[in-house]
Amino acid sequence: MSGANSSDHFRPVAESKKGGAATQSADACAGNRDAPATASANVAAVSGNAGAFVPSSDASSGAGEVSLGDVAPQAPTNASGDKPAASPVPASSVTATNDPVSAVESRTALDGKTVGSAREASFPAESDNPNEGESARPRRRWVWVLCITAGILGLIVAPVGTWLLVVWSKGRAELRRAIAETDAEFPNWRWQDLLASREPLPSEEDAWPIIAELIRRHKAYPQTRKIEHNDGFWNWWRLAFSNHPNCRAPDVHAQALSQWYASAAGSGLPELSAQLQQYRRARVPVPPLADAPVATLLPEHNELRSGINCLRWLQEYYLATGQHAQVEAVLLAQWKLVTSLDDDPFLIGQLVGVALEGLAIASIERSLAMGEISPKTRQLLASELQQRKKLNRFLWMIRSERALWHETFERVSTGRVSWAKFVREPAYAMGPSSSGSGSKDWWESVQTFFTERLPEKVEYGLTYVRRHWSHTHILRLCNELERAAQLPGDQLRPKVEDALNKFVRDWDQGPARLDISGVILPVWYRLVATHLSRQARFDAALAGLAAEEFRLQHGRWPTDWSELVPQFLPQVPLDPWTGRPMQLRPTSEGMVIYSIGHNGADDGGHPDRDIVFRLYDPDKRNLPPPPDKPDKALP
């Protein structure tokens, strides 16, 4: 068939993918026999908005036989010579041939695109967009990137998750064993058991209401606040009991005490002090536990220092005015106040008790340095010291810490307290600082989050995973300390130090930063020193009362322990720091009995370096106030 045949004509065809092309193929395959013999068989497949012009064949060319190779596709022109834009032609305008098979074999190229046959048009491509193939490839690349990233994260997360699971599981198993060990060796060690183990104290025998009222009245006086804010008074007060217990108060401080006593006497403080002798003992009420029991606040315990200061001010006023009977009554009243913390279930309470005992012993030394104490009161004080020496406050500290830490960990396990709140309460908020200054911009906030807050959160999470190990270590350390607490001082110290050093080694072998049990280590080293110093202080005070009794009978001070044992003392007091007899030495003003203390050096009975109890000759007692410039302390 020649492309120059005058009977040939062109028909523009523009089809959509799923409309015109598919309909044209369907019409061609239907084989419409009613169509005239000269009807043309036009097949076109158009991509995009291109127009296809297919020649029409006549009957002489053969049924449905079309040759497209001799005809170049052209776009018809209008009267002005412009080429109109191609417009879609509905499928009904396409005329089918009598032989559909020959029509679907032809192909042509339009606008540089390959146009398939009608058979191909009947199975269209997925999209008319020629750029869709290129856009699909980036999407496939993103899928691969995501898959590879997920695989890398999986390789990292899986081992870490496995390690955390192993640490958690082993920690729980080890904790169960530690609790079983504690139950077997130390029954009734939990918090409620510790409270129940205390001796019952009927309300009619409890002096705490009297002590609480005494403290309230003492703190309510304006003169009390005036003295408490007087630095000069407190400097003298410290020096009087430290360097010059045998000297009277300067006139200015004696006058301040007289003014305070005038208001105190008017409100009945001396009577309240005397009433304390009518009670067997006292007991501070136990406050409700905080969410984290180890962080429980003890406001009433801290008020006891004001209470004993009130009694000591009364004693100082009576010493200055020569009222020796009242001095002795106040000395005994101080020990009634001290008894309020004998079986206190808090470590802080026991430490306050140790401090109050030291102040009460200093009051005995002060009274002997200013005058004499009657034989009856000396006997009562010696009995009180002997009884209180048997009280093992160090043991109460251990049991208290073990019970409260266990209660805290149990509350974390049950969800009553969050781990982050227990360890620390940081502000995790992003953005400006909590002060509202807005000094940080968004980039600084992001940097702060990733460099500070996020690592903190991760650390909290890791310490939470290891909390069973922390719980286990604290239980076992407290068990070791309780075993050592029953030993004498010279044996207790190396035993406790061995237990603490072993704990440190075990703690260092693991991820120490993630084990919060290490926070209690420095505390226990100091608590051991406090316990040994307390023992030495009681032994020195008992020996001092015995030496005063010896002086009253023999008119001189003892020169050796053999002169005191066994008539005045049951046995030679041993220095808990060395295990050897305590030092007993004469001085220019009398004599001193002392322990070398925690530094391990014999400083000759210096009050700032050693643990001392000083005794003065009768003519060296109740001396005038010391010079304004205090003695220079040892370097």
Could you describe the 3D structure shown?
There is one protein chain. This protein is mostly helical and 635 residues long. The chain contains 20 helices and 7 strands. The strands form 3 sheets. It has a 3-stranded antiparallel β-sheet. α4 (132-185) runs parallel beside α18. The radius of gyration is 50 Å and the shape is elongated. The model is unreliable at 1-80, 82-127, 425-440 and 630-635 (pLDDT under 50).
User: For the CA atoms, what is the radius of gyration?
Assistant: 50 Å
Question: So what's the overall shape?
Answer: elongated
Number of helices: 20
Mean pLDDT: 76
Number of strands: 7
| Class from secondary-structure proportions | mainly alpha
The main sheet comes to: 3 strands, antiparallel
Order of helices and strands: EHEHEEHHHHHHHHHHHHHHHHHHEEE
Report the uncertain regions: 1-80, 82-127, 425-440, 630-635
Pick out its properties.
635 residues; mainly alpha; three-stranded antiparallel beta sheet; 53% helix; 5% strand; disordered N terminus
Q: Briefly, what is this?
A:
This protein has about 625 residues and is mainly alpha-helical. The chain is built from 20 helices and seven strands.
Topology:
Blueprint: E1 10-13, H1 20-30, E2 52-55, H2 100-103, E3 108-110, E4 113-115, H3 118-121, H4 132-185, H5 191-196, H6 208-220, H7 222-228, H8 231-242, H9 251-266, H10 269-275, H11 299-321, H12 324-338, H13 347-370, H14 375-389, H15 393-414, H16 419-423, H17 442-465, H18 467-485, H19 489-509, H20 521-554, E5 583-586, E6 590-595, E7 611-616
Antiparallel strand pairs: 1-2, 3-4, 5-6, 6-7
Helix pairs in contact: 4-18, 6-10, 6-11, 9-11, 11-12, 11-13, 12-13, 12-14, 13-15, 13-20, 14-20, 15-18, 18-19, 19-20
